[in-house]
């Protein structure tokens, strides 16, 4: 097998990463605390000393996840505005038109989400 010299550092880094994961998992398994089997009070779940109420597998409303996705979507939009704000003079009219196109696409997404009722919490 004849690899170019530029691949050698990548292979070394990948090998170190795999070795680190393997050592971490094996170390946690063999050196970590052992829990006894059974249904003792010590092995039960507690939240800040308060007894658990209900099941941990209670489904969440889809609104929770939809809000999280929308937050990430519109938060990333703001991240893309920073380079434009720093260099807006160098971009000229072409950069301004590109940013207007970018904003128009996100406004269309926002109005779509709004019309679909994703921002209406009463439903």
TrEMBL record:
Membrane topology (UniProt): Multi-pass membrane protein
Listed GO CC annotations: NADH dehydrogenase complex; plasma membrane
Role description: NDH-1 shuttles electrons from NADH, via FMN and iron-sulfur (Fe-S) centers, to quinones in the respiratory chain. The immediate electron acceptor for the enzyme in this species is believed to be a menaquinone. Couples the redox reaction to proton translocation (for every two electrons transferred, four hydrogen ions are translocated across the cytoplasmic membrane), and thus conserves the redox energy in a proton gradient.
TM stretches of this protein: 6-32, 64-85, 91-114
Annotated gene: nuoA
Subunit structure: NDH-1 is composed of 14 different subunits. Subunits NuoA, H, J, K, L, M, N constitute the membrane sector of the complex.
Protein name: NADH-quinone oxidoreductase subunit A
Domain of life: Bacteria
Compartment(s) of residence: Cell membrane; Membrane
InterPro entries associated with the record: NAD(P)H_OxRDtase_bac/plastid (IPR023043), NADH_UbQ/plastoQ_OxRdtase_su3 (IPR000440), NDAH_ubi_oxred_su3_sf (IPR038430)
Catalysis performed (reactions): a quinone + NADH + 5 H(+)(in) = a quinol + NAD(+) + 4 H(+)(out)
Transport recorded as keyword: yes
EC numbers for this chain: 7.1.1.-
GO MF, one annotated term: NADH dehydrogenase (quinone) (non-electrogenic) activity
Keywords: Cell membrane, Membrane, NAD, Quinone, Translocase, Transmembrane, Transmembrane helix, Transport
Family note: Belongs to the complex I subunit 3 family.
């Amino acid at each position: 097998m004849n690899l170019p010299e530029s691949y050698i550092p990548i292979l070394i880094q990948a090998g170190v990463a795999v070795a680190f994961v393997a050592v971490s998992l094996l170390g946690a398994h063999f050196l970590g605390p052992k829990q006894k089997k059974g249904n003792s009070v010590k092995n039960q779940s507690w939240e800040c000393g308060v007894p658990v109420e209900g099941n941990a597998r209670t489904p969440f409303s889809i609104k929770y996840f939809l809000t999280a996705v929308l937050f990430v979507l519109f938060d990333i939009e703001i991240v893309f505005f920073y380079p434009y704000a720093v260099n807006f003079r160098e971009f000229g009219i072409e950069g301004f038109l590109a940013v207007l196109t970018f904003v128009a696409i996100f406004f269309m997404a926002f109005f779509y989400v709004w019309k679909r009722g994703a921002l209406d919490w009463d439903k």
